[in-house]
Amino acid sequence: MSVLNAKECVSPLTRSVKYHQQSAEIRALQLQSYKMAKMVLDNNLKLVKDKKPAVILDLDETVLNTFDYAGYLVKNCIKYTPETWDKFEKEGSLTLIPGALDFLEYANSKGVKIFYISNRTQKNKAFTLKTLKSFKLPQVSEESVLLKEKGKPKAVRRELVAKDYAIVLQVGDTLHDFDAIFAKDAKNSQEQRAKVLQNAQKFGTEWIILPNSLYGTWEDEPIKAWQNKK
């Protein structure tokens, strides 16, 4: 484990963890996102012609609440490691993001195919499937849960879905959950922000993004500060 000093323990995760675990606002935002997702789904289903409609959702911080893992890092004054995350995938305490189950059941009732595309590890797929089934999420199967594989980034897995289905909606918590342009073509937050503006019409009509202040491309960017002239 990579041990941090006391000052680093407070930053950068402490406030983010408290916000995600304790704030009422985060729950309101999550419920609002999934309420919008239902409305967008209804609208987009009217546009489907030939293929069977499908929705794609990320898992962690989109369907599954894994903020206890970040809490574990803060409480134990350690950094993320693949080893601790591997154990969390198998044994971690999880809850559902508010609104997720309601949306998924709604999509299922509309005859929509559901795919869960996540960068959880392939070797722990059995544990992930068990977790999803324990929450009684609809359409959980080997075929519908597409996890991280070498040579198959999320964009490739989305393309596999698009071969047979009309993707009417995607739900995620990072831009990488929606399109490769935010990963391959945008190397930093500034470029990502430009891509967001270029694709503004897709947010709220094809893509629904949930809040996540724990991690992202923005982590390594400098902070802008007010220049207080004395």
From TrEMBL:
Transmembrane segments: none annotated. InterPro entries: Acid_phosphat_B-like (IPR005519), HAD-like_sf (IPR036412), HAD_sf (IPR023214), Lipo_e_P4 (IPR006423). GO terms for cellular component: cell outer membrane. Pfam families: Acid_phosphat_B. Gene3D superfamilies: HAD superfamily/HAD-like. Keywords: Lipoprotein, Signal. SUPFAM superfamilies: HAD-like. NCBIfam families: lipo_e_P4. This is 5'-nucleotidase, lipoprotein e(P4) family.
